Amino acid sequence: MPWPEFLTRHPKLPEGGWPAQRVLITGASGGIGLALVDELAAAGAQLTITGRRAEALKATAARHPDRVTAVLADLTHTEERQRLVNVARQTGCTMLINAAGVNRVELFTAGSDEEIERLIALNLTATLQLTRALLPQLMAARQGWVVTLGSTFGTLGYPGQVSYCATKFALRGFSQALRRELADTRVRVLHVSPRATRTAMNAPEVEAMNEALGNAMDSPVRVAQAVRYAVERGRQETQLGGPERLFVRLNALLPGVVDRALARQLPVIRRFITPSETTP
Q: Distance (Å, rounded) from C-alpha 148 to C-alpha 191?
């Protein structure tokens, strides 16, 4: 059963709909970010997109040359992040979609301090810093939006995803706290949690592991559609996937049951798991 509507809805898009929106999308070089560019450009929004891979970003922008402005930037660098904020202000940004992120699929003991720092710097620290820097612009808009892409693993701790879970749990808390802090302003804060998604971020072993475990995987297009729907319906929290929604609620109510279920999956996870990293 879905949550009561009065607990999950805030105002929808204002008059003018998507054509009135000036959207900044991070992590737009590929995967979910690329799908978001296609989805929102088709809806009529004007987009500023950013990523760290020049050729991929250029190719993304070329798909919608009349609607997309590309800004190459590494969000973990202060000066590049500020340059992006300046462009967003010049374009009259009304919506920030935090889609940039990186994942590592490995046992926690197999990682390094440097890898943990890099994961946290992009997934969490840079996201908070960019959002804070852009908030004055969003608060000045008729209605501003902060939309953050989280993960099922922001509510459900999962073996082989320890550091990634740490950043996604933090982003969910960030979105919830910011939403409450800005409740008396014109900025709406939404959090969307995809389940497993087929992107270049996944090593072949991860795809094979999900298949062996029977984990459903969505396409980036499906996730982009869910983000658009969440904004249009004013849904503060969106979790993709019926089984995942059930598992998340079970984890909140009876975590021991989930502990035992995941313990049975652990041998399969250990068999497939390998260190891997791909950045958008």
A: 5
Question: Which carries the bigger pLDDT value, residue 3 or residue 240?
Answer: 240
111 vs 173: which has the higher pLDDT: 173
Q: Which fold has domain 16-272?
A: Rossmann fold (3.40.50)
Using alpha carbons, select from 256, 265, 257 the residue that is nearest to residue 214: 265
Averaged over 45-62, what is the pLDDT? 95
- What pLDDT score does 7 carry? 40
Angle at 198 between CA 22 and CA 97, to 5 degrees: 20
- Of the candidates 18, 164, 247, 272, the residue annotated as catalytic is 164
215 neighbors 24 (Cβ within 8 angstroms):
no
CB 44 within 8 A of CB 62: no
pLDDT tens digits for range 205-249: 888 888 898 888 899 999 999 999 999 999 999 999 999 999 999
For the chain, give every domain's residue range. 16-272
Torsion of CA 141, 143, 144, 150, to 10 degrees: -170
164 is catalytic: yes
Taken in order 120, 162, 223, 146, is the CA torsion positive or negative?
negative
